[in-house]
Amino acid sequence: MWLFHYHFWTNKVEKMEQFYRLHGFRTILRMGKENGEIRTYNPPLEWDDFRHRPILFRIIELIRGQVNVTFGAGTRDRFDHFGLLVDEEEHDAVMSRARLAGMTVSESQARTFVHTPWGFRLELQRRRDVVEDDGKIVISKAVLVMPFSTDPRMLAECLQADLQETGGRFILRRDGWQLQITEGDLPWLDSVHLKTAEAFVEAVDPVGVRLITVKE
Question: Per its UniProt record, what Gene3D superfamilies does this chain match (predicted)?
């Protein structure tokens, strides 16, 4: 099980794509609705080819190594979900524990979503083609803000992650990555740490997520 993905809704889709491409990500999908039809605007097309057209982008997808980032057009910046790359056994086990905890699960062949009580969704992804074969670039840590009205320990139990509580924070660890959880009114992804062979870099994307690369 590996943390590999996050998704936002935003009114800054072009700026988001520019930011992630500047930091080494590759665009693999642009899908939008234009004049009532769903179409793709994938590379080699660039924004100058379609910026003037009335396109509502449903999803723009970029990858770098084992990291997958998506975003779509929204009226405001909103964190929607993060994703875990899982095998069949892990998929079924997380789904079962989520249902036992009272969470709603939407299952499909493409991917499964767990609707959590904290206002975000959890994606369970079994397809390996959503990332590149090169596993040298991975998410080693993410910092998640969410309300504590429902006990965060439930998320650790659902993922069967090791749990540490310190200074009002929860740290979930599993399979070489960690999710640090802090309390806030609305769910939000504060930062994402990428383990790479590069020197330390820190930048903030257009919706406010801190992207940090940490050399192996």
Answer: 2,3-Dihydroxybiphenyl 1,2-Dioxygenase, domain 1
Whether 132 and 187 have beta carbons less than 8 Å apart is answered as no
**H/E stretch holding 14:** helix 13-22
Residues in the chain: 216
Which tens digit of pLDDT belongs to each residue from 19-58?
999 999 999 999 999 999 999 999 999 999 999 999 999 9
How far apart CA 119 and CA 202 sit, in angstroms, is: 27
Geometric angle at alpha carbon 153, from 172 and 156, rounded to 5°: 40
Domain limits of the chain?
Answer: 2-215
Angle at 70 between CA 208 and CA 210, to 5 degrees: 25
The number of angstroms, rounded, from the C-alpha of 74 to the middle of its chain's C-alpha atoms is 16
Distance CA 7, CA 59 (A): 9
Where is 213: in which H helix or E strand?
strand 210-215
Residues 148/164, Cβ–Cβ less than 8 Å: no
CATH number of 2-215: 2.60.40.4320
Q: Which residues contact 22 (CB under 8 A, 6 or more apart)?
A: none
